[in-house]
Amino acid sequence: MKILIISKALTAATYHRKLELIATEPDVELTAIVPPMWFEPSVGEYPLEVQTPRNYRMHVVPLAHNGHHHTFWWQGLGKLIAAEQPDILHADEEAFNLATFQAFWHARKTQAKLCFYNWADVARRYPPPFSFFERYSYRHAAHAIAGNHLAKQLIRDHGYTGPISVIPQFGVDEAIFTPAPEPLPAKPFVVGFFGRLMRSKGVLDLLAALERLPSDIHCRLIGKGDLSNEVEQRIAKAPLAGRVTLEPLIPSSAMPEAMRSVHAYVLPSRTTPNWKEQFGRVLIEAMACGVPVIGSNSGEIPHVIDTAGLVFPEGDVAALAEAIHKLYLDQDYRQTIAQAGRQRALRHYTQTSIAQQHLAVYRSMR
């Protein structure tokens, strides 16, 4: 079974573990098409972190219109697909994206079975040409993969009648995302937030919650975004001065160590008219590291955490502060939540589990 996966997300080295696991199957010949770099608006460049695939092949292909999520496309993709002649083509993008239409258009000439990957979880109708791309993808896909439960429902609402599987795009490598060998010092108590500094990610709510909490509760921020300047100014003043560090983006391989440096991880996402939290991969990374998690109830977060962490109403700064304070005060409770989170991550969200679920989809398409 020749599988071709086309994905800009595979610039991250840790995500390639899923490919390695899929490619270990004796009946699988796996090839990935990845870009040399993805440009994320307001954040910057995410360069390709992996260079030497182990048991699969990889083509590094430049993108045109890089940084435009719905209108980027792959240069020379048609010739590559024709040369590969895959049995299964997995376009790791939304059904309404130009890149998905491009991949499907060329792959249909090879008689490959096709699947796409949808994260979108906010109900809307797409204008032309995106509505055309979506209808084309639905018409020719043998399977749809949804990253969350709301995305599955939206795919159905938009008219897709074929099989759908709900599978996270990538899992965590349990051999890398492990608990710290020794407990952290009790003071200061450090909460973490690693990601885009944007209003939709709720970083300002986290800072507002910290202002209500004891001075020995600190915060480690890693990231960049539209709010970088505002965050820098705010953490330089009382009552946050000296309690919050702001650091630049780190490679994905450094994330386990970063997770192990905090007592709790917070994802305080806020739903907007055009977006709600689609998954929150950082949550399963923290959980796998034995770090207790706190998340808002935006989008998929409650499904990811379930009962293995704390969930608060999005935008409720007082409730967020209370959740942090609860973990700060009760070490036994913190340990209980940490253990529950790690068990949930190992049970549902490892790279091995995610790889096997994707393999089941590919085999069902033959």
UniProtKB/TrEMBL annotation:
Matches recorded under Gene3D superfamilies: Glycogen Phosphorylase B
Signal sequence bounds: none
Pfam families: Glyco_transf_4, Glycos_transf_1
Database matches in SUPFAM superfamilies: UDP-Glycosyltransferase/glycogen phosphorylase
Residue span, Glycosyl transferase family domain: 181-344
Glycosyltransferase subfamily 4-like N-terminal domain mapped to chain residues: 51-169
InterPro entries assigned: Glyco_trans_1, Glyco_trans_4-like_N
Designated name of the protein: D-inositol-3-phosphate glycosyltransferase
Organism expressing this protein natively: Herpetosiphon gulosus
Protein encoded by which gene: mshA_17
